[in-house]
Please model this.
Amino acid sequence: MSDAAHAHDDHSHGHPTGIMRWLTTTNHKDIGTMYLWFALIMLFSAGAMALLIRAELFQPGLQITNPDFFNQLTTMHGLIMVFGALMPAFTGFANWQVPLMIGAPDMAFPRMNNWSFWLLPVAGLMLISSFFLPGGAVAGGWTMYPPLFIQGGISYDLTILAVHILGLSSIMGSINIATTILNMRAPGLTMMKMPLFVWTWLITAYLLIATMPVLAGAVTMLLTDRNFGTHFFNAAGGGDPVMFQHIFWFFGHPEVYILILPAFGIVSSIIPTFARKPLFGYASMVYATASIAILSFIVWAHHMFTTGMPVTGQLFFMFSTMLIAVPTGVKVFNWVATMWKGSMTFETPMLFSIAFVCLFTIGGFSGLVLAVAPVDIQVHDTYYVVAHFHYVLVSGSLFTIFAGIYYWLPKWTGHMYDEKLGKLHFWLSVIGMNIVFFPMHFLGLAGMPRRIPDYALQFTEFNQIATVGAFIFGFSQLIFLAVVLKAIRGGAKATDRVWEGAEGLEWTLPSPAPYHTFETAPVVK
Amino acid sequence: MTEKRTGKYRTSIILAALAIGLFLFTLYSGLK
Model:
């Protein structure tokens, strides 16, 4: 690989400064930075909602919220975390890293990239401001099921519009990413030489292009049911509310993989670096990622076992869901095999990655439990499900976002982060996260329903433990903010390679990466 | 690479057409 870094790259050719720089920028690094800051703001907003939820659940009875506001909190927490925090964070990584990893000067469509980002704050503002509308924010759950979603007030229309805008942003972003990967790779960088992060994002982009329009169709039908007298989902007019669930989950299950495949890519970059060994089974990782993506389209009705499905349907969706454990198992095996007999060191990115491998596997196993139709019928809509998807999305997606930021922050800022604070953030997060979510398995198995502000007395102890964990986990994220700000302001100078075992085109660039990079394409041998 | 970069319009149009097609097909499925 050639060193394509040029000192003269590090200027901005008289581009606007101040706020206009950020409003008009077409630079992938600027846009990546904005995605990541937006995601962090949304993480803290929806995290504050989670802390309110947990504070209410500290004891039985109603303390600080009324039931309707509680439902608004759970709904908005889910919507904002999925669409406002996790998805934009991974798109931020894609913006920063994909051009650097494939030796491209920028994304394929830089102006569309700017639009993709600036749609997000508009939609985010619409979602959060709906709390202040008459009747409050949406309270029908992030899944937007009718009939509740057909009956609510003006905030429901605003949320539908926000979801449309978020979907448009995602589709534009993913077309840009897929086109960049397919057309802008450096000479010699064949598909099977691409870093796994690039592969996982290519597959994720296809998933987004194939599923976000389906969600857009579903919410368009909700909108016309609400405002234009149609009866797609209104049983009173001959519509079918269960059809919404089928359409929603045809989007919703691949969405889970949209939130986890880029995480797999990040971990697959980090573990080889800190194990100082090449990734074990690269080709099998690629095929496993593609298999997971394909299978994600034929499992959607496992979210609907209680809607009254024929037994053959239940069996099909049960077994197809279990099948996903095979490629996922291949991946976990490969990460462990990469670490096997490696010269491992345990910097913060590696700690988060190892925690990911262990804890995501717990989330995967509880997913297998839920795939068993008769078990799912018992624990459907209980805290067991809440425990399951938080193990997947917190210790899965969120932990890898932290890992990725610690890993690439020196390349982005030119400064090493504070390792001691990073490790403190890791240990508080991993301990806090388990204290919040592990007891929820027991609550769910004992029958505590989700989305309920009050509960029977026998659930008190586990809820109190979970709330204490939530506050530890929530406030420890302030350490993360401090680490990031500290690294931006200064600190030990990062070397170009940053990590001893790091491989790939991005590490051939200076730290911080210049404003313009790879204007002359590097040649990959 | 220049050749590849002109191909970006073709790639993006195909992907955008796929997205619009899926959106319309979803609405059509709802009408049936």
About this structure: The two ends of chain B are 46 Å apart (CA to CA).
